[in-house]
Fold these 2 entries.
Entry 1:
Amino acid sequence: MKAPPYRIFLSPPFLTGAETAAMNAVMDSNWLAPVGPALTTFEEDLCRYTKAPHAVALQSGSAALHLSMVLLGVGPGDEVFVSTYTHNATVNCIIYQGAKPVFIDANPGSWNLDITILEAALEERAARKKLPKAIIVVHLYGNPVDMDRVMALAKSYKIPVVEDAAEALGSTLNGQALGTFGDLGVLSFNGNKIITTTGGGALLTSNAEMAKKALFLATQARDEAPYFQHSTIGYNYRLSNLLAAFGSAQLTKIDDFIAKRQLNFQLYSFFFKRMEEELGYPVVQAQYLIDGASSNHWLSCFVFHFPSLAEQVIAALEKAGIEARYTWKPMHLQPVFESYEFIGVGVADHLFESGVCLPSGFQLTHLEHHEICTIIKKVLLENL
């Protein structure tokens, strides 16, 4: 039998060995789905790790985003301010509710939502008495948004905030877990995230009533009755008992997973610093961390100062069987969202054109890292 082609993936999952034992225990109990003790344990584990008072485990981060809009009463005619530099799931949840996204540009340093632009946009909307129904901020690639500024603004205008922390489990701001600053926080356990349940997500909140309603809606909105009765439209959004056990096993190793991804980022940064010294000028820009912030560096991403290099680096790595990707294409540039309002000056456009996400997985070896950097160096020396 022929061996499969060698390939280094961008962000593959890593199994610790404990997942099999955890799932076998659930299968032995025959309590697979929809809910059960392992699901309760996983939610308790998430609360313990993030210090969030309440966690509701769901089938996906997208489900958590959608429920956040439902819980906040977002509906037809409403506007929701949202980061443009993100994955489309952050915006789809707004469209599901018949509301309109208003895209806010990225900050050139942090790449997160530009809070100065957000502030000006809120002031303008307030003058027109047309404030958004909610604000969704995204902790891009695990890099913390300045939530103190965001929450101060939101409080002054009485607007709820949803934190899309799908990429940011384990990142903190002044010691506080991301996803616990806003009214609602969203986590993802997709296969490429810091920890995985193979698929899955969670909704975090400090509001007991919201947590209770999220649980109700996520289990088909079944009324308290001795038969199946429904007075509200609900969703089949709960995570299974089996996959919850998988998640709890993964969570025991999260500190190791984060430390390795942070090391990956440091090694890439050191390489690019050496290239700067060799060439005599900087080659890339990384995300700027605000004071008090700690990033999980879910992905190691860099923006090249020379736009054409992004395409060439990705192509050269792909030729060697190494997966690298462009950074997120801004939502206001997506064909499906191009009719919606964008507020900004095109910073996100530039970041997308010149940005590259490099392999960042837990199992990336020093030898593989050296191979990646050698290929990038060759591209740089041939084109600069």
Entry 2:
Amino acid sequence: MRILVLGSGGREHAIGWKLKKDYKEAEFFFAPGNAGTEKLGLNLSINPNDPYEVASVCSELKIDLVFPGPENPLSYGVKDILEKEGKMCFGPSQSAAQLEASKSFAKKIMEEARIPTAPFKIYTLDDFKSGKLNPEKIKTPIVIKASGLCAGKGTFVCKASTDVQTALEKIFIKREFGDQGNEIIVEEFLEGEEISYFALCSNNEFRFIGFARDYKRLMDNDQGPNTGGMGAYTPVEYGTEELRNKIEKYIVSPLMEELHRRKILYTGILYIGIMIHKNTPYVLEFNVRLGDPEAQVILPCIKDNFADIVIQASEGKLPQRINSEGSALCIVMASQGYPDKYKKGVEIKIKGEEESDEFIIFHAGTKRDNGKIVSSGGRVLNVVGLGKTKYEAKLNAYNKIKDINFEGAHFRKDIGS
């Protein structure tokens, strides 16, 4: 079998690593991949966001299965195009991917299905220009979200009126998110514990994979700007069986029923950002793929054959359950200046092995240049510690970081605290 993984981050390295571990005889390709994925298979210089280019390469290389890592290819309809070509693609259709590609679509789905979420209002760029959206009349604390895909950076927690002004300026005046910010959600600020829920789906049936806790802020103690993610761990101490049952009863099942009512079939990963507010799980967001860096901790803990599960799910079948064990904790090492301007081409030196029973290094923004591994993105490496407990996993991750050196490297010191 020939398998193509779309994407270039730590998540895609983790997906390829897990699939190859469970399906050693398969040939692997990555588009475009990074310096880590080239050890697993062949990196291809194609645009993963162009479904027709992906389909053409799949025909040329006789690819049997495509696993899109990020949300963009799915929102551009890669699943739909590949299926027309008779290719197997593990991910939701373009219509189902709107759950992530349009937060306003997701909110309307939740409203229709009576899924618990923060009270909200939807505004457009025209509302802002016409004065219908008046920043001075918005009472804080609230959360402002650009409706489209913003790589995890389009959400603003506004605790003062100045925060509201800053958010609207970035979205509507500076146009930092382009057309993805033509529409915004203004919703009530909910306090509580956050947790990420993951399920693997096939034709609107689902199986729980696990919970993860991620860290979005750049600095320790949740300070600084939002990022794509600075770390994560699994399992989560407050991710109880009771919480899982509530999420599946009041969120996942009603969601799948509403999608079915709309004649939308959902196959792929479902990732739900949850806020536990007054002992009730509320949906913060739906995502139609594995998280990054959550994938880097969820996948190493799955003990079943993940490749078999993915292939079977693509064919409309699911196992009774998906089993996980152990703990994993991921620390993201980022370039100096991330998430704003940062330098590329910085040489990365890693002492010793990149994988053992105690750790795995997943590459993200890296590439090989004249035999050296250099930085090519904001989030550079993911150092994942493994252990029987979170404490062991954390110790192993932070110990391994001592073996990695590149100029300006930044990472949080409090992941798992």
